[in-house]
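Exam prep: given the inputs below (a chain plus coenzyme A), describe the expected output before reading on.
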Amino acid sequence: MHTRKAVLPDASAIHGLIFEYARHGTLLPRSLQEICENIRDFTVVENRGRILGCGALHIYGMHLAEARSIAVWPQDRGRGAGRVLMNGLLAEARGHHIPCVCLFTRAPKFFAHLGFKKVRMERIPEKVYKDCRYCKQRKECDEVAMIHGRLPKLLSDPEPR
Ligand SMILES: CC(C)(COP(=O)(O)OP(=O)(O)OC[C@H]1O[C@@H](n2cnc3c(N)ncnc32)[C@H](O)[C@@H]1OP(=O)(O)O)[C@@H](O)C(=O)NCCC(=O)NCCS
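Solution:
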């Protein structure tokens, strides 16, 4: 089992995998067009040429990236693919010298197991501005914001005394 950066011919498989979870509301839906446009964000985890899972690292800037569209096929869950995938995305962020990786999730226990910590959503305004303001469920959001690494300081943060 290993990770590799996705290439355009993976787009349909990634689309199918995300749809598998988006149709139940677990993941945000992504159109095939959107996946193609952002294919360089995606990593796949595969075994003997078969894709087991996918995930994307979206870069907001030097300070922050977001891990998103994290999914492992139902029949492949529980065998380490999710961990391998997340390790790949975190290594990619480290390679860019990005000090913090955030995500919004309904599976906080899995990510806590991998070292992510819960934070208040308002601590990640980049994500709220990009996605949440368009989300129909924003008033009754049941996702948990989490970070791995050091959260960037906000201008609104109090100065240390
Ligand atoms: C979350 C998901 C990616 C995990 O992938 P996976 O391949 O099943 O996870 P792994 O087998 O690599 O598990 C790695 C470790 O996390 C633990 N773990 C897995 N799922 C867990 C969960 N829901 N709660 C707590 N721990 C969990 C495993 O026990 C394992 O621990 P260990 O290495 O100490 O034995 C997968 O379940 C999935 O695709 N879920 C649906 C989509 C989703 O919720 N994506 C996240 C939204 S951002």
